C-alpha cells in the first residue's frame, strides 16, 4: 500500500500512456457555428440564463431565466422540465428531431464548502421508456457550465456528421466543430480533448476542463450513458462519472455529438456569489467534521465508497443474485467490500467535485484489461459502485476482477452498468430455462456466471454487430420480452414475471420481494424503477416502522419529494443520510435525519438569500414532481397501467425461489393470509405460489391507491388540476390536458380504486376534488 | 521539491504563560496585517480549568492528501504550506484537521495555518513558546486508515 503525502507531481498511476498527434486531429475540425457571449457573474447561485443549441441549423442562443421560472421550478431538474415542456410535442420520441438533451445545474451546484455539491441533472425523452428520463451525475461539467455562464444547456436537432460542442467560459465563446478523427470511447476522447483544449500544458489548466461523452456502446444500444469527466491532478487523467439511466448517451450519439466540452477561466468557493458565505462555511465545516469523525464507524464511504453495501445487502437477503431469484448467495463474500478495498488506490481525495470529503468515487489504477480492443493495456477503472457489483452478483459473476472488467468496458463504451447487467441477468435466466439458447443468442453461451460471454455481448454491441440477438438484446428487457413472446419460445407468464423492467427501464440492484413499500418505491416512480426516489426496505421490512398502507403512502410521498429536492439544486443525496449525526437515533424522526434537513434549509438560504423552511423545500419538489408526472400523462404514459411492476419484484415466481425462502413464505401464508398450518403442510408449492401471487398483486394495487390519494392524484394516477393549481401552476394548456385525460378515464371507467376491499378494510377516501 | 526531513514545530510551556495573548496579535499581523488576534490568528491560547492550552498546527500534514486542487504542499523547510492562489476554499482541510489547527477567518475564503515563522516566539514576554525540531516521519499522518478502523 502507498504511503501518504506523495507530492502531486511525483504520483504515478502506472497506467498505459496514450500518445496522439493532437495537432493533426484538431486540424480536421471545421467550425460549423460560433457564438460570442458577454461573461457575467453568478448571482446568488443563478447564472440567470440558459443556453440553447440547435444542431440542424447551427443556431446558438441565450434564453433568460425569469423569476417566475425560479419560483415554480427552482432549478436543476425543474429547469430541465420547463425547457422540455417548451420544446417538445406529445408525440416526441427519443430519436425525434425535436427531442432535446438537457444538462442543468441548480442554484447550489458548484458550491465547494458543502460535500456533495457538484451534481449535474440530465434530461431527455428516453429510448427505453418513451417518457422523460432524468439522471444525476457528478464530475466537473455542471459547475463549470454554470461558472461559464449558464444554468442549463439544451440541445435540439441532429448534426449531419460527428461534432463536438465547446462552451468556452474563458473566452466567452460557444462553438460547434466537426470532429472526425477523435476516438468515440469515453476514456480515450476525454483524454484527447482535455489535452487539446487546455489553455496551458499543466495540470491546473487541465483541471479547468470537463467533457461529456458516450462511447460506441451508446451508439448501438438503448443503454447509453453519459460520461462526465473530472480531471485528477494526481493520476493526471480525466476520470469519469456516469449519468447512467434511461439512455441519455444513446440520445447524445443519435444527435451525432461526440462530446460536449466546457471550460472555465477561474472558480473558487464563492463563484456562486452566495448571499451569506459565513453561514455557508459554518454549515459546510460542521459536515466535514462529522464525516471525519463518524464515517469510518458508519458507512465507511471514504475507504470503500458505496461497495460497503454489498455485505449488508447479502446479510439481509437483498442482494440480487441470478436475476433477482435470490437475495443472498454462498459465494457473495467474494464481492464484499474488503476485496475491492485491496484493489482501490488509496490516499487520494476521491470526491467527484471539489470539497466533497465523503469521497465515494473510488478507483482501481493500472488495472490490466483482459478482453476486447484494449486488452493488455493498463487503465484506471472508476468504481465499481454498489450497483455495478450488484450486477456482478445478478449475473452470478463472483470474481472482483471480472466485475472491474465489466465496469471498465461499460463505462468507456458509454453503457449503463445497471441496465446492461440487469438485462443480461434476465437473458441468462431465459437461457437456463431453454427459452434462449446458444443458437438464439447468436452463438454466445449466455449462462449464469459466464463472464467472458458477458464481455462478448458488450463488445459485440459496441462494434455495431447486426446479429438478431445482439440487435434486440441491446434494446433492453422490454424489447426482448416482446421478441421471445412473438417467437412463442416460452411461457408468457414466466417471461413477463422474470424480466425486471417497469415502464421499459431495467431495475436497479435491490431485491424488493419482501418489502411492499419498496415495490412502490420502484413502481410508483416517474422515470422507472430506480432507487433514487425512495429506499424504504429497512424502514418497511427490517424495522417495520411503516406498517399500514397510510404509513407507506406517507413515506412514498415524503421521501420521493425529499430526494427530488437534491436534483433541483444540483446536489448529491449521499451526504444527507450516508453519514448521520451521532445523536440522530434520539431525534423525533431518525429516518429523515432532521439535523441534516436543517443544514439544507440553512444552505439554500445562505446561497440564494431566500428565507425558506423545511416545508418549503418539500413544496419546491412537489411542484416539479407533479409537473413531471403531468408531462408523462401528456406523453401518454402517466397512469396506473404504467406503474405496473413484474412479479419477480413482488414474490417468488418459481418453485426454486419458493423453496429458498420456504419458512418465510409458509409463515406468510399463515399469518397474513390466514391459512392454517395444517392446510399449508398439505398444499403443493405451485398452489402456494398462486395464493401469494394473487394476494401480493392486490396488496400492490392497494398501495398504489393509498399513494395516489396521498399525492393528490386520481385513482388512475393522474395529477388533478386542483392539485396543480394549489401548487401554483396556472398554465392553461397543462390544466386542459389533465382535465381531458381525467374525463376520458372517467368514460372508460378507470377512475376507480385498484384494490379489492372487503367490508373490514377501508379504501382511500373517495372525496377527491378534481378541478 | 525535496524537503529536509526535519521540521520546526511550536512547543508551549503553559506554566510560563500569563495569558497576555501577544502571540495571537503578532500572528494576525503576519496573516492579515492587523493586531486583532482572535479568529485571525493561527496560534490559539485558551484557558481551560485555570490552565492555558495552546493550539497550532504541528505540521503533521494529514491535510496534504485531502486537498483536491493541490494547494497544500510541504515546503523545503518541511512545513505544511497553503498556496492561496491555488486554494478554492472548499474547507476539506479545516474539517479534517484532527487537532482543528487549520483556521478560517470571515475576511477571506482561503484558510490559513501556522507556518512556523516564529513571530509569536519573538513577542512572548514570558518565553512560553519555543521551536523544537521533529523528524517528519515521526509526525506525519495519512488520510486512509485500515478499513473500518
Description:
The complex is a heterodimer of chains A (771) and B (149). Chain A is of the alpha+beta class. Chain A is 41% helix and 12% strand. Chain A is globular and about 80 Å long. Chain A starts with 21 loop residues before the first helix and ends in a 24-residue tail after the last helix. With 149 residues, chain B is α+β, with helices and mostly antiparallel strands. Chain B has one domain: 2-Layer Sandwich (Alpha-Beta Plaits). Chain B has helices at residues 22-32, 92-96, 119-123, 136-139; strands at 6-12, 44-48, 51-55, 72-74, 80-82, 129-135. In chain B, the strands form 3 sheets. A two-stranded antiparallel ribbon of chain B has the order 1-6. A two-stranded antiparallel ribbon of chain B has the order 2-3. A two-stranded antiparallel ribbon of chain B has the order 4-5.
Summary of the model, kept short:
The complex is a heterodimer of chains A (771) and B (149). Chain A is of the alpha+beta class and 771 residues long.
- CATH C-level class of chain B is Alpha Beta
Mean pLDDT of chain B: 91
Instruction: State the major sheet of chain A.
Output: 7 strands, mixed
- β-strand number of chain A: 17
Percent helix range of chain B: 10-25%
- What structural category arises from helix and sheet content of chain A? alpha+beta
Largest interface: A-B, 42 and 35 residues
CATH topology of chain B: Alpha-Beta Plaits
Which features does this protein show?
heterodimer; A: alpha+beta; Aldehyde Ferredoxin Oxidoreductase,  A, domain 1; Aldehyde Ferredoxin Oxidoreductase Protein, subunit A, domain 2; Aldehyde Ferredoxin Oxidoreductase Protein, subunit A, domain 3; seven-stranded mixed beta sheet; 31 helices; B: Alpha-Beta Plaits; 4 helices; globular
